[in-house]
Specification:
The chain is α/β, with parallel strands linked by helices and 272 residues long. The chain has eight helices and eight strands, in the order βαβαβαβαββααβαβα. Bound molecules: guanosine-5'-triphosphate and magnesium ion (MG).
Length: 272
């Protein structure tokens, strides 16, 4: 769990948070991180395990309040929000561009999280979809507050699909609820079958895993069945789909999954 990163310094495109009244994360004491075997799961020189646990609990309870507010706000328009998590370069933005094209006239909106640049938001806007870039600066994940600010800049129609592309990082984003309906993990065949075992939290937190870049599988020493088996070892419930953003292979099943989630969401909201 990321309780010692420089998070909370993010900027929503065009807006600096330097004037933010709620810098909710602690400062200092976070330069020299050694992962420990103590109760907090991390070791920071000069800080006790109890203090670390206290800080982590504090950060997460504040995040959860922002996430809950986002969830209420999204429910008002029946928006289906998906938090896309992965390591850097697994193909999140490429898949999003393809997905938006496939969804055609259906209303979509995108929040793009990266440490720096507006590259990904620019790629999304080229499809015609509204996108807001959030730069996390030194931070390693999006948090509920950043997403709340981004929502201020996004038009949400009834039944929108909101894609939140998280910062490429297989560790920290797993622990932060953004108010999404679920997390979708994107892996690529080039990363290696052992990744689910090495970074299990991300895959236990995800409902669906998209195994991307299947077009490259013949060129890699990769066993796709073992990749899937490892995903199911860490999360027996996880759904897995093999896709290629490059060739479009497997995207029909992914679009079917999206439409089913959207229908389930609308049924939920009607019942509520
Ligand atoms: N061969 C192949 N290349 C792909 C596929 N999907 C993405 N790529 C390539 O992989 C690289 C990274 O793709 P992006 O879509 O930028 O990945 P990302 O996950 O958004 O990256 P970050 O936002 O930087 O973490 C680019 O060169 C893409 O063209 C795929 O299915 N097959
Ligand atoms: Mg990207």
């Amino acid at each position: 769990m990321c309780n010692v990163c420089g998070c909370g310094q993010g900027t929503v495109e065009g807006h600096s948070h330097d004037d933010s009244h709620h810098h909710h994360h602690h400062h200092g004491e976070h330069r020299d991180i050694h992962y420990g075997t103590g109760a907090a799961g991390v070791a920071v020189p000069g800080m006790s395990q109890d203090r670390l646990i206290e800080l982590e609990a504090d950060i997460l309870s504040k995040n959860d309040a922002f996430a809950a507010a986002n969830r209420t706000r999204l429910a008002a328009t029946g928006t289906l929000a998906l938090n896309l998590v992965s390591s850097p370069g697994s193909g999140k933005t490429s898949l999003l561009v393809r997905t938006i094209e496939r969804l055609g006239a259906h209303p979509v909106a995108v929040i793009e999280g990266d440490q720096q640049t507006t590259n990904d938001a620019d790629r999304i806007r080229a499809t015609g979809a509204p996108a807001v870039q959030v730069n996390t600066g030194k931070g390693c994940h999006l948090d509920g507050q950043m997403v709340g600010h981004a929502l201020d800049h996004l038009p949400l129609e009834q039944g929108t699909v909101l894609f939140i592309e998280n910062v490429g990082n297989l560790v920290c984003p797993a622990g932060f609820d953004l108010g999404e309906d679920c997390k979708v993990a994107i892996l690529s065949v080039t990363e290696g079958e052992d990744k689910p075992l090495k970074y299990p939290d991300m895959f236990t937190a995800s409902r669906l895993a998209l195994l991307n870049k299947t077009d490259l599988a013949p060129h890699c020493d990769v066993d796709l069945d073992l990749y899937e088996a490892n995903l199911r070892r860490v999360n027996p419930e996880i759904e897995v789909q093999r896709v290629s953003a490059r060739t479009g292979e497997g995207l029909d099943a992914w679009i079917t999954w999206l439409n089913a989630r959207l229908a389930a969401k609308q049924a939920e909201d009607t019942a509520a």
